[in-house]
Write a structure and sequence with these properties.
By secondary structure, this protein is α+β, with helices and mostly antiparallel strands. It has one domain: Aminopeptidase. The chain is built from five helices and seven strands, in the order E-H-H-H-E-E-E-H-E-H-E-E. A seven-stranded mixed sheet has the order 1-2-3-4-5-7-6, sandwiched between helices. The longest helix has 17 residues. The protein is globular and about 40 Å long. The two termini are 30 Å apart. The model has no long low-confidence stretch (mean pLDDT 94).
């Protein structure tokens, strides 16, 4: 069965459902994401984080979105580090979807939608992303959306208590 996938700008009202996903999926995501303070897993902590993201959106440095599956919030997709200057016009893409909906194509479709938004609405030329070397599912999502690996950032992030390398990805928008 094909599920509909949409993205929209995140809202403070999304805090409780995002917190619920993050509490349930904390163990599943632990090996792929940096450690977070306890408040991150609470609706109040998520609301504070969302307010910060929306301040960044207002400043033009981030486009923070939610992934909707059949109109339910099931994840996030974020365009961060936006560099809109004419000689740069690039940003990075990050995303996650809840374990309860993984394997149904939502992450891939959300990344495709955010790439279109980056080109058409944000006027960007280049999309970048990074994955853990072992995160094959995320690498598959990026490959399906036209990204190519271009290098390794050694010892770039602490994940699950140890420094890890990241595989760097790029896609020229409009290609």
């Amino acid at each position: 069965m094909q599920h509909s996938t949409r993205i929209r700008l995140i809202e403070p009202a999304d805090a409780a459902v995002i917190a619920a996903h993050r509490v349930r999926d904390a163990e599943a995501f632990r090996r792929w994401e940096a450690a977070q303070p306890e408040a991150f897993f609470t609706p109040e902590g998520q609301e504070e984080r969302i307010e910060g993201l929306l301040a960044g959106h207002k400043a033009g440095t981030v486009w923070p979105g939610v992934v909707l599956a059949d109109d339910q919030v099931v994840g996030q997709v974020t365009v961060g580090g936006i560099l809109p200057q004419p000689h740069l016009r690039r940003a990075s893409v990050g995303y996650w979807v809840a374990t309860t909906v993984q394997g149904r194509g939502h992450a891939g479709r959300a990344v495709g939608l955010v790439l279109r938004l980056m080109e058409e609405e944000l006027g960007l030329h280049r999309a970048e992303a990074a994955t853990d070397l072992e995160n094959l599912a995320s690498q598959h999502v990026l490959r399906r959306n036209g990204f190519s690996p271009y290098g390794v950032s050694h010892s770039s992030i602490v994940l699950d208590g140890s420094w890890r390398d990241a595989l760097l990805w790029e896609r020229i928008l409009g290609d």
